Amino acid sequence: MFENLSDRLGGVFGKLTRQGALTDDDIATALREVRVALLEADVSLPVARNFVKSVTEKARGQAVTKSVTPGQQVVKIVHDELVHVLAGEGKSPELRIDNPPAPVLMVGLQGSGKTTTTAKLAKRLKDREGKRVLMASLDTRRPAAMEQLAVLGTQVGVDTLPIVPGQTPVQIANRAKQQATLGGYDVVMLDTAGRLHIDDELMAEVEAVRDAAKPRETLLVVDGLTGQDAVNVAEQFDGRVGISGVVLTRMDGDGRGGAALSMRAVTGKPIRFVGLGEKMDALEEFHPERIAGRILG
Ligand code: GDP
Asked: What is the pTM assigned to this prediction?
């Protein structure tokens, strides 16, 4: 489907096996291809542009060693820089859920996989860290979404807050926190309502919930296949609500994962987990090298 970057650069450099430093011409030619590859992998244009700029600086003056071709050398520089940007400064710290009951706010657009991810993450915290988790759906407009979380809760063996019709999202958030305190839960996960598009009402609602719940973590769930849109969503949620991390879903699909790079570069917020399917255990920690490999093709 896509021509991978190594092949592409192989074509550009041809049979050239010259050694010595990469020349400015080599670099300029190669990085045009890198830019196209990034855009094909759904990296947003400004992010691709900046990325190419910083790689150009790193590539200048680098000696081409005997064992590799200039093309391979550039691929390595690009790969290392991708991992560097995706990983951010050091390893992502653990989720801040040490002070029970720690509120975790789940935000994102409708259909991004927010409810599924809430249940997956609750299961993970229970199974791997022995946490007692309480989940609550704040989607007062869609009773089906509340039911969905209850069904998933039963499936993964995690409690959900009983549904009381007629309450506002803030009232539900308060009730969830109270219940979590009384019930001795470690973590209370709040699955906020989504919309198909970002609108002011949604943002105001999520802000009000945030102010009431005072979350320790606010995780934005984004569909990893939506590319450039994912970046706009991340920017807007981060600007209005403030996010502490990102979960990229549908990474089991055939997308190239460029959204990860764009979101990391634009928001500076760590990608914590990736969703790899519909099953309840299809959630993994984020591995920058895997996404870097995928972006390069
Ligand atoms: P919400 O509206 O954001 O709460 O989205 P849902 O959690 O209801 O998910 C919407 C659909 O996406 C459901 O059919 C999920 O099973 C599916 N889904 C969620 N995460 C993933 C994922 O990582 N991979 C795949 N393939 N499907 C997912």
From this structure: 0.92
